């Protein structure tokens, strides 16, 4: 131990979801916690990701609602116009309020916040370097690495005024007329959906055979059709080779000589762990060939008392997964009973239109794992609440173990697309994680009329005695 160092029970490098969750949970458990952040508390999720993206997606939903108000007998009058600066002002207002609230929570729990970049040395010694180059030495009984991630780029696609990543999208001062989104994963599809609703002409370029990798094939097909129906061009199985930025536009070149012209290109091909800023030489912590910090199932690194969570490790890059991992770490530090995160059963949400939400195995994955399965699918046109909302695009699909009589047994996966399914996944999440059976879940009463009835109907039909289909 360095005698002059500030000491803490836990020193955290990174103030994003993994870091601040551990700080708040750990401080609530009685730990003396110090947290280091070199930008703004909240990390990517709060400042450059989840929150601003969903704010603009909500703007898109309001625009759709107003544009379709005539079907409800509401005369809005004239064309719907967008004041994008007002939308972004509201977005930053929400972000700022949440960042301020997070700072107040940390202060209220007596967490010490250090502004600067943290690097880890031997024996859990952490050096904080601020913007002026001044350093502070911290000593932790335990250390949590939670420095997060940054967007990946493609060769030849350096960030500019026309080439954007998810970090720069939120700095736009207007909606471009033509947008090319490179990457058809969750983030790319959310951006495509948002820009389309806000009036842009959108093209999605995805190298894989289908968009939304990891999502059940039936849901992918449905969402693909819905997006194209709204006017979004989706090209799958295409390889992007480069770009040429001209005075008036940017041209994206594809393998085979084709090209697509746009006003802005959003590169959304995933994120890489931000481990290169951590130092780590002599710390006992190792990284793999992709830059992820290597941990075991308990989020423990190779150095005693040093943990890592969130985007820094090779687990699902979701804020709520980082929360769960950080709670796991604190429980271990406290000597409390703990269990590793079940990564195959975490909830996933995509906030495009229609929304996507799922948990557990897809039908393909369940079969590949050796399960004999039975499935049930219910679409929204038969749901009264969805009809009232005017949102009938999508389905609920449940995958269950097949019993000898052909009915469903244990629920293996729940997959949804449609209105507000990101807010409906809770029942499915509990069912999959509690290893519930179809009969057990079918016994619960769904309120009527509600969107959640569709999940109940889908489950009930797997008992062999459905009501409406």
TrEMBL record:
Transmembrane segments: none annotated. The active site is at residue 448. One of its GO terms (molecular function) is flavin adenine dinucleotide binding. NAD(+) binds at residues 183-190, 206, 270. Its EC number is 1.8.1.4. Disulfide bonds join 45-50. FAD binds at residues 54, 118, 311. Keywords: Cytoplasm, Disulfide bond, FAD, Flavoprotein, NAD, Nucleotide-binding, Oxidoreductase, Redox-active center. Residues 9-325 form the FAD/NAD(P)-binding domain. Its cofactor is FAD. Residues 346-457 form the Pyridine nucleotide-disulphide oxidoreductase dimerisation domain. Its main location: cytoplasm. GO terms for cellular component: cytoplasm. It is found in: Cytoplasm. GO terms for biological process: 2-oxoglutarate metabolic process. It catalyses: N(6)-[(R)-dihydrolipoyl]-L-lysyl-[protein] + NAD(+) = N(6)-[(R)-lipoyl]-L-lysyl-[protein] + NADH + H(+). Binds 1 FAD per subunit. NCBIfam families: lipoamide_DH. Belongs to the class-I pyridine nucleotide-disulfide oxidoreductase family. The active site is a redox-active disulfide bond. This is Dihydrolipoyl dehydrogenase. The lineage of its organism: Bacteria, Bacillati, Actinomycetota, Acidimicrobiia, Acidimicrobiales. The gene is lpdA.
